[in-house]
Amino acid sequence: MPIHVLNQRGAELGLTKPWHFFWATGSLSSVLDNAPTYVVFFETAQALTHAEGAGTLALVGGGHIFESLLVAISLGAVFLGAMTYIGNGPNFMVKAIAEQSGVEMPSFFGYVLRYSLPILGTLFLIITFLFLLGPAPGAGP
Prior knowledge:
The chain has helices at 2-9, 18-29, 34-48, 67-79, 89-100, 108-132, and strands spanning 56-58, 64-66.
């Protein structure tokens, strides 16, 4: 039922451009599991795609989605999931193994402030400027 609500009313969230979806999906993926976050924004993006046309992909179960939004959602879920220990299972596992082996690891906020924001944040801003800025899909030239 909630998925149907997103599909029907997702356009009301105000997310219209690929970079909106990248950062919204990624922000939630950094603290939640990637799969449900991906589904939420996939359904939201699908609500913006009303018909087949340039830059759209046909979905197996019917319907369409703008390719640029799908790419942005995928990138956000995967890349920004690495911003925290809990957003990416392997990050948490590596931290636990390292601590068990006696390696001192930064705290949750230490990791975010010392490594994620300065290094990954910078890379994600560059990705945004190089690949995700531009008009909303379907808006025309």
